[in-house]
Amino acid sequence: MEAFIGCRKLNCCCCKRDTRAREGVVIGGPASTADGVLVLESANKAMILPRINTPHLNVKNPYPGMMCYDTASKTLAVFDGSVWNYWK
Predict the structure, then answer these.
(1) How many CB atoms lie within 10 A of CB 67?
(2) Which residue of 39, 63, 64, 69 sits 20 to 30 Å from the alpha carbon of 86, by its own alpha carbon?
(3) What residues form DSSP beta bridges with 84?
(4) 3-state class of 58 per DSSP?
(5) Do residues 35 and 23 touch, judged by C-beta distance below 8 A?
(6) Does pTM surpass 0.70?
């Protein structure tokens, strides 16, 4: 997998190619000690999920692990591969 190093602008011509294998992507901080494919770091901000009204009716092809905020029930909705589960 190729990754870019240099400035943080997307598609910037001044960035250099880094061909070393990367474990994941860190967003919101220069680095992280967390081990994951996608790591979100912030001391004062949170992740905002997509807001969907009744995802069990409106998401036509859900994928296992998909998450969203159900605006109808005001819950976290997680698709497990078979059914949607709702967390208050």
Answers:
(1) 14
(2) 39
(3) 79
(4) helix
(5) yes
(6) no
